[in-house]
């Protein structure tokens, strides 16, 4: 590694001005209310409902537990159709609920679930579909909705990457029965750690608030075997601050993405992520597929690393080939996902990424 070059990581968390955050948390020193759905929690919920244009939202301590808890809250049993081209969390949330994941392949264009392959996987045990809006690319929500209606299945989107994305002007949070968002430090919008679920059926609000708090429903009543997945006041305060600046941050991300696109487009063997014109994206990730390029994905990864630039093989390996699932599933059953996973590299992308660094990254890839 070259010593004189600063390390560039794949992402860097957005944080507000220190004094803005101090101002937001000041009242906590008067109330001494640190967690359990306090003022900040209520305020963030309210702000997020406005931002995402949804009627129902419940906050969680992280995105993973948001997904685990909505699957529990919907009281699902049996098989769940999902994709392996995702973060370990999606598959874990299904398995940790005692459900069986059934892996559907992805499509080659935007890496979301291939809707033409869903129906073949449906059995009398299937209860739900958990598709992933991977990289903020939106699944074929219309066709998924048709299939779900036809077979009476629930649809819960892993929308961890898709915060704020709109399709034909409509917020992505409004599709399916529910959508999970992650507010982890590495995501476009963060609450340090955090997450939320948006959902259609307003009756779920009480259920979710109960199961994220040990299943406690009254001073002397515990109705569910719930866990603890509450978002605390400091997380919520960070969210309130970050949300104020989100549109500016997304705009800065756009400039980075445009620079990458300009430098890397029309290069033989390099495939870039296309954003359809009806999608208002959040520029969450910059995935590049190296397929027939003079260097393999792994060679590009190593070459960048020599310059202290740490890209990520995101998503590699597939969840159905993680060590913990190896005996149970086969990645050969999802050949397109396997193909993409072997060739994809996500390049550094964050709001404050200097465009000169973007140029340098492209120079290294292209030289
Ligand atoms: C980040 C992420 C999660 C988990 O969210 P956390 O907030 O980190 O718990 C789930 N699914 C996907 C696709 C993610 O990228």
Automatic annotation (TrEMBL):
<keyword id="KW-0663">Pyridoxal phosphate</keyword>
<feature type="modified residue" description="N6-(pyridoxal phosphate)lysine">
    <location>
        <position position="187"/>
    </location>
</feature>
<dbReference type="InterPro" id="IPR015424">
    <property type="entry name" value="PyrdxlP-dep_Trfase"/>
</dbReference>
<dbReference type="GO" id="GO:0000271">
    <property type="term" value="P:polysaccharide biosynthetic process"/>
</dbReference>
<keyword id="KW-0032">Aminotransferase</keyword>
<dbReference type="GO" id="GO:0019179">
    <property type="term" value="F:dTDP-4-amino-4,6-dideoxy-D-glucose transaminase activity"/>
</dbReference>
<protein>
    <submittedName>
        <fullName>dTDP-4-amino-4,6-dideoxy-D-glucose transaminase</fullName>
        <ecNumber>2.6.1.33</ecNumber>
    </submittedName>
</protein>
<dbReference type="GO" id="GO:0030170">
    <property type="term" value="F:pyridoxal phosphate binding"/>
</dbReference>
<feature type="active site" description="Proton acceptor">
    <location>
        <position position="187"/>
    </location>
</feature>
<keyword id="KW-0808">Transferase</keyword>
<dbReference type="InterPro" id="IPR000653">
    <property type="entry name" value="DegT/StrS_aminotransferase"/>
</dbReference>
<dbReference type="Pfam" id="PF01041">
    <property type="entry name" value="DegT_DnrJ_EryC1"/>
</dbReference>
<comment type="similarity">
    <text>Belongs to the DegT/DnrJ/EryC1 family.</text>
</comment>
<dbReference type="InterPro" id="IPR015421">
    <property type="entry name" value="PyrdxlP-dep_Trfase_major"/>
</dbReference>
């Amino acid at each position: 590694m070259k010593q004189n070059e600063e390390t560039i990581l794949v992402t860097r968390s957005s944080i507000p001005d220190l004094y803005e955050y101090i101002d937001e948390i000041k009242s906590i020193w008067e109330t001494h209310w640190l967690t359990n759905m306090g003022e900040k929690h209520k305020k963030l919920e309210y702000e997020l409902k406005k931002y995402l244009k949804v009627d129902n939202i419940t906050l969680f301590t992280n995105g993973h537990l948001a997904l685990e808890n909505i699957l529990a809250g919907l009281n699902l049993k049996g098989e769940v159709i999902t994709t392996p081209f995702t973060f370990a969390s999606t598959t874990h949330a299904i398995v940790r609920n005692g459900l069986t994941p059934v892996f559907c392949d992805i499509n080659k264009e935007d890496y979301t679930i291939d809707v033409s392959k869903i129906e073949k996987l449906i059995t009398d045990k299937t209860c739900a579909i958990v598709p992933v809006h991977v990289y903020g690319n939106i699944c074929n929500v219309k066709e998924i909705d048709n299939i779900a209606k036809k077979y009476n299945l629930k649809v819960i989107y892993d929308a961890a990457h898709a915060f704020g994305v709109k399709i034909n002007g409509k917020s992505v949070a409004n599709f399916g029965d529910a959508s999970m968002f992650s507010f982890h430090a590495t995501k476009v919008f963060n609450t340090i750690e955090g997450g939320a679920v948006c959902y259609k059926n307003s009756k779920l609000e009480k259920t979710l608030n109960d199961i994220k708090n040990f299943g406690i429903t009254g001073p002397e009543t515990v109705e569910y075997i719930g866990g603890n997945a509450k978002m605390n006041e400091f997380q919520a305060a960070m969210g309130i601050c970050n949300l104020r600046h989100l549109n500016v941050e997304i705009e800065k991300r756009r400039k980075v993405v445009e620079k990458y696109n300009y430098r890397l487009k029309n290069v033989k063997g390099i495939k870039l992520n296309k954003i359809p014109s009806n999608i208002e994206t959040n520029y969450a990730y910059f995935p590049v597929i190296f397929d027939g390029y003079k260097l393999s994905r792994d060679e590009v990864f190593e070459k960048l690393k020599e310059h202290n630039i740490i890209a990520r093989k995101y998503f590699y390996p597939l969840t159905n080939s993680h060590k913990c699932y190896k005996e149970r599933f086969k990645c050969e059953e999802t050949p397109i996902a396997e193909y993409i996973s072997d060739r994809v590299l996500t390049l550094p992308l964050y709001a404050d990424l200097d465009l000169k660094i973007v140029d340098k990254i492209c120079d290294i890839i292209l030289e």
